[in-house]
Design goal:
about 240 residues, alpha+beta, Glucose Permease (Domain IIA)
């Protein structure tokens, strides 16, 4: 009996060791690094083992109409109402911005590119390593509600490289890019709106502070006027509301 239990235990450990990955769908998926299973938190693993191999991003552009975002509207700013965890950028009212190219804001590494088939739609996470001495040492940017994706997980990208196009989460919203700047890796999709905004930065403020050689040139994107905000959803500028 004891022998049988021993072999059943070995089998259970072997099966558990087959599962690895990240928690991006709210499911429990752990990184298996040894047998018996030794599980590690992704963020410190990323910092210790992946971040040092990433290219240094010393100059940042806008994700829509780079380098300065000319003609771009921030239709729902960071912490709007004290809760919006990113910014919603678009270039036209209604769904006219559908298919607008989305670009990587700097040289980085795609950690996730996946169609979640929910209100987030197609989502790309890209990690960017900042020069030594900068704060934060790295950021992870979430590009969400995309119509198409032109990159895959594990791929390196360059600043200004097209990574996808603006979408509307299969008609749930009017067309816009929801994007977030995070100071930790592997946080998952998140809520989009939350009173707590740990590990988040204002996307526009981050860009303005890390423009590289163009740091003296202002960003050209703008926020909505009160009159524009009051327009009906389908006639107005796309956002998460």
């Amino acid at each position: 009996m004891a022998s049988r239990l021993f072999y059943l235990g070995i089998l259970a450990v072997w099966i558990a060791a087959l599962w690895f990955g990240l928690d991006y769908m709210g499911e429990t998926k752990q990184v298996a690094v040894a047998v018996p299973t030794t599980q590690v938190d992704w963020s410190p693993f990323f910092v210790a083992n992946i971040l040092p191999s990433l290219p240094i991003a010393d100059e940042f552009d806008t994700p829509l109409r780079p380098p300065d975002g000319a003609g771009v509207v921030d239709s729902l700013p960071y912490l709007d109402g004290g809760q919006h965890l990113g910014e919603d950028w678009t270039t036209a009212q209604g769904d006219a911005a559908l298919g607008e190219p989305v670009y990587s804001i700097a040289d980085g590494w795609v950690s996730v590119a996946y169609d979640f088939a929910n209100a987030w739609g197609k989502v790309i996470f890209i990690d960017y390593r900042l020069p030594e001495g900068r704060y934060p040492p790295f950021i992870e940017v979430m590009y969400a509600q995309l119509q198409t994706m032109d990159v895959t997980s594990g791929q390196f990208v360059k600043r200004g490289q097209k990574i996808g196009t603006v979408g509307n989460a299969n008609g749930i919203y009017t067309a816009h890019l929801h994007w977030e700047v995070r100071t930790a890796a592997g946080l998952g999709l998140g809520l989009g709106f939350d009173m707590r905004h740990d590990n988040r930065l204002s996307p526009s403020e981050f860009l303005a502070a890390h423009r590289g050689d163009r740091f003296k040139q202002p960003l050209l994107m703008r926020t909505l006027t009160p009159e524009e905000t009051a327009k009906p959803k389908r006639d107005g500028w796309g956002n998460d509301n």
